[in-house]
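Mods, move this if it's the wrong board.
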Amino acid sequence: MLLTPFQKRYLRGLAHSLSPIVLLGQKGVTPSLINELALAIGHHELVKVKLSGGDREERAAQIEALCAGAACELVQTIGHTATLWKRNEKEPKLPLPK
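Not the wrong board. Structure tokens:
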């Protein structure tokens, strides 16, 4: 499901008070990290991820790998923190505006 700009703005507001749940370490994006992210995003729907890496290109590659691995969408990126979202199909927790 692609998010509209209005929905992304709404989710950014909800994510403002959240702390990062998943921390990316020196090993980068690993299968076990993607599994943990999938569990966290399945439970919370909206999570923040603290990224490692020095330059923007490396962080962008990490975000792309995380989104592809966990089948989620990027809401926003601020510095070394990315906010990711995925709808829980069985039990939705966050109502999205249309």
